[in-house]
Amino acid sequence: MLYLLSPAKTLDYDSEVPSLRGTMPRFLEDSAELAEVMKKMKPAQLEKLMGISSKLAALNAERFDEWRTDYSKPEARQAILAFKGDVYQGLAVEGWQKEDFVEAQKSIRILSGLYGILRPLDLMLAYRLEMGTKLSTARG
């Protein structure tokens, strides 16, 4: 059985995390295309596109400026450890053993507006791009 989780708006890139091997997202090239479109936008455009505050827009403009595909720890974090919404807090991954992460990697998928579909241990950089955001790209 596969469990499908929505992403969370709240991210945690500050707390200490267990030492786990990360995996690379499967659709990273597609993510790079989206990130390139987002990089070209000014904070005011991001604010309007995503309906966020000017402070959040500035933060995300900076995040997209720094976004790249050749990342590793510590700037990247495993998806299951980066998202901090209610569902992720309910999973209580702080108490998981390595075997729990291995099983989660097989049975959990996380939807992402930027990365498409993530496995729990897929490394990701901090971003904000909600699933319902209408973004014009070369593909449509």
Q: What's the arrangement of secondary structure elements?
A:
Elements: E1 3-5, H1 28-39, H2 43-50, H3 54-66, E2 77-78, H4 79-82, H5 86-91, H6 98-107, E3 108-112, E4 116-118, E5 123-124
Parallel strand pairs: 1-3
Antiparallel strand pairs: 2-5, 3-4
Helix pairs in contact: 2-3
Describe the structure.
The protein has 140 residues and is an alpha+beta fold. The chain has one domain (3-7, 22-124). It contains six helices and five strands, in the order βαααβαααβββ. The chain has helices at residues 28-39, 43-50, 54-66, 79-82, 86-91, 98-107; strands at residues 3-5, 77-78, 108-112, 116-118, 123-124. The protein has a three-stranded mixed sheet. The protein has a two-stranded antiparallel sheet with strand order 2-5. Helix 2 (43-50) crosses helix 3. The longest helix is centred in the middle third of the chain and has 13 residues, at 54-66. The termini are far apart. 25% of the residues are buried.
SSE topology string: EHHHEHHHEEE
The tally of domains stands at 1
Largest sheet: 3 strands, mixed
Mean pLDDT: 90
